[in-house]
Amino acid sequence: MNQKAKLLNRSNNQLDERLSAENDRVMTDMVCYLRASGLSEYNQELVRQDLLEMVLSAQERGDSIDTVIGGDYQSFCDEIIASLPPKNALQRISGILSTFFLCAAILCAIGVVFSKDTFELIRSAIAGRPLNFQISVPVSSLVSFALIIAFSVFIVQYICKTAFRTKKPKPSLGKNFLIGMGIMAFFLVIAWFGRTVAFTVSLWAACIGIVVMLALYKALEQYEG
Predict the structure, then answer these.
(1) Phi then psi for 137, rounded to 5 degrees?
(2) Sequence-ordered list of residues with C-beta below 8 angstroms from that of 138, at least 6 positions apart, any chain
(3) Which of 111, 114, 173, 99 minimizes the C-alpha distance to 145?
(4) Ramachandran region of residue 134, left (φ > 0), alpha (ψ -120 to 50) or beta?
(5) What is the tens place of the pLDDT at every residue in 142-201?
(6) Of 164, 160, 221, nearest to 36 (Cα)?
(7) Contact in structure between 198 and 146 (CB atoms under 8 Å)
(8) How many other CB atoms sit within 10 Å of the CB of residue 15?
(9) For position 163, what pLDDT does the model report?
(10) How many helical (H) and strand (E) elements, i.e. helices and strands, does the chain have?
(11) Which residues of the chain have pLDDT under 50?
């Protein structure tokens, strides 16, 4: 989120605090639905600002949110989304890359901190033994990181796109079977490749890589719109 969108987001958060409990619930669903749209983050905040002003105005008059928006919240949001320009190619690519670099930096930092080689390095430093600053990266970690990033993005998108569904459809037997097979395959891959080292990297190089990915994230989010 660039600086212009962040400022508008802070202003909208202050307006949010004035909503009643019922209106806040509906607004949360609408904003969540907007997050999964093709609008830029700045346009999302503009739409959110307009919605908040409309709802707060009705709230002050004692009217319900349905008198302003109607009963079909999703159709209302779809009409607004269709009336605004979607993200351009640069904004879409920047959004994807910034999300990837942020997730990768966080996961790499967790991997470095909880690596057995890091613990061994600490023990060696305490005991006065020679220090080994090399960290081994097993194939299982690479697979896990990729799946965690993909699954996280999928979950967020699914929750946002189904924000207005009151009853979630139950997965079919075929879907349950595929999900079960996918989970089994994941654990089999981890078990099979668990001890195989993909490569080793210096602790300092890993730390520099994490800082670079965070810097790329901060730079790219300025182009998300």
Answers:
(1) -115, 105
(2) 193, 194, 195, 196, 197, 198
(3) 111
(4) beta
(5) 877 888 888 888 888 888 888 887 655 555 667 666 767 776 776 666 666 666 788 899
(6) 160
(7) no
(8) 16
(9) 83
(10) 10, 2
(11) none
**DSSP for residue 63:** -
**Pick from 66, 132, 97: nearest CA to 215:** 97
Q: Which sign does the torsion angle of CA 173, 178, 181, 187 carry?
A: negative
176 is written with which tokens? Answer: 């349950």
* Number of neighbouring beta carbons within 10 Å of residue 41: 22
Instruction: Quote the pLDDT of residue 201.
Output: 93
Task: Please give the Cα distance from 29 to 23 (Å, whole number).
Answer: 10
Scanning the structure block, which residue is given the tokens 């159709």? Answer: 75
Residue at 8: amino acid letter: L
Q: What is the largest CA-CA distance in the chain?
A: 74
Task: Note the pLDDT of residue 204.
Answer: 94
Q: What was the pLDDT predicted at 134?
A: 93
Q: What is the pTM of this model?
A: 0.77
The pLDDT value given to residue 171: 55
DSSP 81-100: HHHSPPP-HHHHHHHHHHHH
The helix (H) or strand (E) run that includes residue 5 is helix 3-16
